[in-house]
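Is this the right way to post structure tokens for a design question? Let me know if I should format differently. Anyway, here goes:
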């Protein structure tokens, strides 16, 4: 379980640095805005291109991916029903909450966990591809449409072509699918810029915590608690049931599917919320609470399901 602890230690340290930067004001009052914009439009697209251009695309067609996709769908549907029928939140806020309840931290926590706990980084690939190529485009399209105040078929269809993260993901998949070997002189700049993405997102998250208290009065506690419970309990439970009883995966894959589903909400969701200025507190608090909750959840999952 050292991989889990290592992953959380790395994330916690960078977030703490961001908090100190925000608390001391050494980066100025616009630090949060600048970090979010650069991460969204520059660094994260570069990272996505480098990761997906080297992905093993055959995992897309596995039962493991179906397990992941259905567990994500269950989490999404449960949150949307609660938000629209019980909480009666607008579309944009519901979208952010649904993403927070289902979009896992497959990169900076998922990769260490896959390497040190599951023993194979490939287990992260299905959910990474699903999120980048399906969930993220849909989420960003809905947010873009909802925040602009009008729904246009043309806008809906062309939005993926105007979003730098989606464009980068599509280009990465094309490179991986065609087997093109780009020279180091081409890839190195993307790797260098992409390496800044995770620190930027984590530091901006840390800056956003200055003066904030999770579950503060008037911050939408019900929404945050619902998203946290769905992400930390319902989604991994659904993944386990699907993997074990629907797709009859072997013990190692059942364990892997449950662990991947139990990962905390990705900081990308906070980045999306901040970019569109909708559900920012919901995203921030859910990221924080699911990150804390995922430690005992992952320990329990490992104790119960890890193959001997």
């Amino acid at each position: 379980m050292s991989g889990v602890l290592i992953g959380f230690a790395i994330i916690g340290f960078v977030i703490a640095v961001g908090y100190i930067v925000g608390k001391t004001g050494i980066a100025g009052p616009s630090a949060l805005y600048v970090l979010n914009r650069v991460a969204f439009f520059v660094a994260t697209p570069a990272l996505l291109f480098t990761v997906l251009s080297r992905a093993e695309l055959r995992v897309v067609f596995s039962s493991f991916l179906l397990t992941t996709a259905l567990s994500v769908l269950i989490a999404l549907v449960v949150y949307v029903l609660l938000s629209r029928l019980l909480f009666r939140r607008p579309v944009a806020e519901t979208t952010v909450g649904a993403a927070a309840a289902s979009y896992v931290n497959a990169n900076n926590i998922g990769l260490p966990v896959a390497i040190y706990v599951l023993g194979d980084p490939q287990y992260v690939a299905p959910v990474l591809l699903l999120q980048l190529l399906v969930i993220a485009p849909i989420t960003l399209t809905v947010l873009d449409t909802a925040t602009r105040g009008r729904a246009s078929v043309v806008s809906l269809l062309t939005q993926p072509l105007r979003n730098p993260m989606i464009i980068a993901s599509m280009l990465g998949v094309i490179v991986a699918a065609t087997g093109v070997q780009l020279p180091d002189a081409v890839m190195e700049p993307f790797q260098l810029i992409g390496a800044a993405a995770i620190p930027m997102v984590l530091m901006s998250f840390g800056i956003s915590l200055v003066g904030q208290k999770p579950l503060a009065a008037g911050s939408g506690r019900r929404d945050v608690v619902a998203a946290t419970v769905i992400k930390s309990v319902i989604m991994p439970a659904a993944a386990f049931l699907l993997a074990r009883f629907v797709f009859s995966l072997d013990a190692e894959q059942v364990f892997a599917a449950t662990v991947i589903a139990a990962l905390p909400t990705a900081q990308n969701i906070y980045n999306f919320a901040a970019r569109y200025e909708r559900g920012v507190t919901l995203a921030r608090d859910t990221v924080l609470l699911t990150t804390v909750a995922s430690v005992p959840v992952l320990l329990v999952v490992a104790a119960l399901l890890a193959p001997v």
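Format looks fine. Someone answered above. Worth noting: The chain is about 75% helix and 0% strand. The two ends are 14 Å apart (CA to CA).
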